[in-house]
User: What shape does this take?
Amino acid sequence: MYDISVEHQGASDDEVLCIAHERGDLLLTNDKDFGDLVFLRASSHQGVILMRLHGMRPAERIARMVMAIGLHEAEFHNAFTTARQRSIRIRPRS
Assistant: This one.
């Protein structure tokens, strides 16, 4: 796993999405602003997973995402996904 916040500290959301796209990586984030980049500005991406896992301990969040990736990894590519405690919504790029 590549932690873009460490390698590119201070990068804008546009830059973060661009770096992930160029690397061929899925972007895992808590930042809703990436939805605007994907839907309103049609920015290129390999896949974005927005984690809306409020009220969960970090270990629970990790376990939830590991399980989700195991079940849906192929579907996450080129899609915008919202992961919640009890649901996962995957919206493929149209």
Summary: Residues 13 and 34 are 7 Å apart (CA to CA). Helices lie at 4-7, 13-23, 33-40, 58-76. DSSP finds four helices and four strands in the chain.
